[in-house]
Amino acid sequence: MNTIKPFQVINGEELMDMDYKPVRYIVKNLLPQGLTILAGAPKTGKSFLALELCLSVSKGEKLWDFETTKGTVLYLCFEDNTERLQNRIYTMTDDIPSNLYFCWEVSTLGYGLEEKISLFLEEHKDTVLIVIDTFQCIRPQGADYSYGNDYKELQILKNIADKFHISILLVHHLRKQENKDYFHMISGTTGIQGASDNCFVMTEKERGSGKVKLYILGRDIEKRALELERNENNIWIKINDSLDNRKIEKDDITEIIKGYMSKNDLLIGEPIAVAKILSESSNKEISHLTLLKRLKKNANELLDNGYSFKTRRSNGKRIIEIVKIVTVEK
């Protein structure tokens, strides 16, 4: 008897008609939901950076000049003890919010860790960030360090992040060998990069200098490099951002929609019709072929300005619907 189930498939039209919520950023334009690797050599300040991130997010304060999404944070600090962590915090701040939780009880993947994380998330539904310090601490003894196993282990954490719409930051180490591609210095196989949504690599030219570069690469963030310097309170200060001096042409689709919707509460029609209306109202050429992509890319900005959009099918034709949802005072 054949028990093999067929592929679950969708066609191209169904795929293009799917609507998804905009990507949720825990740190705007820097740390989206999903699984992120933070890798660096020992004693470069990875844990101080992780703690600085936890403090900023739990308070809803900016991390450098990046806005954060305030929420509950869990820091699984498996390489520290209570005294060391307390001393570390004292050097940074004396203001610890009650929604920042710490845990030293080491659990491993496949032996209760994922269940304990899920239980915490069920009990603290406003959680936005979990930091695990470090990857090695949660790997089972005698683990197979092959590509397949690296990928499989990280997939467990990624599935949790995706299910609960949170960000999980996994602290890891770099291999000793230098490489022109800093991301290939992450210890382990490329399965670690493959399973992660984002990779942060922390490098220090001179050991103990307190100056590092943080190389950033991800699926929903722009590639960039930050120069950081640690101050007397062991807080990392952003000195430079590789994207600061780059000339960026801002997509003006939000302003175009604001202009049209200032006199209308609804814009609805097929892509070619909507593009024509917006082109005429703004005196700018808007292609119906790229309109939907631009709307999706700027969905967060549209929401911030009081507009939402969705797509649907009517009589076999794709319809775009843009609605004014609130009045946003600027």
Contiguous helical run count: 10
> Do you know the CATH topology of the largest domain?
Rossmann fold
Count of individual beta strands: 14
Termini separation comes to: 66 Å
Share of helix among residues? 25-40%
Order of helices and strands: HEEEHEHEHEHEHEEEEHEHHHEE
The overall pLDDT average reads 92
Quickly give the CATH architecture of the largest domain.
3-Layer(aba) Sandwich
Number of domains: 2
Q: What is the strand content?
A: 25-35%
Could you characterize what this model shows?
- It is a single chain.
- This protein is an alpha/beta fold.
- It has 2 domains: 25-241, Rossmann fold, CATH 3.40.50; 249-324, Arc Repressor Mutant, subunit A.
- The chain contains 10 helices and 14 strands.
- The strands form 3 sheets. A 9-stranded mixed β-sheet has the order 5-4-6-7-3-8-9-10-11. A 3-stranded antiparallel β-sheet has the order 12-14-13.
- Strand 6 (127-133), helix 5 (147-164) and strand 7 form a beta-alpha-beta unit.
- The mean pLDDT is 92.
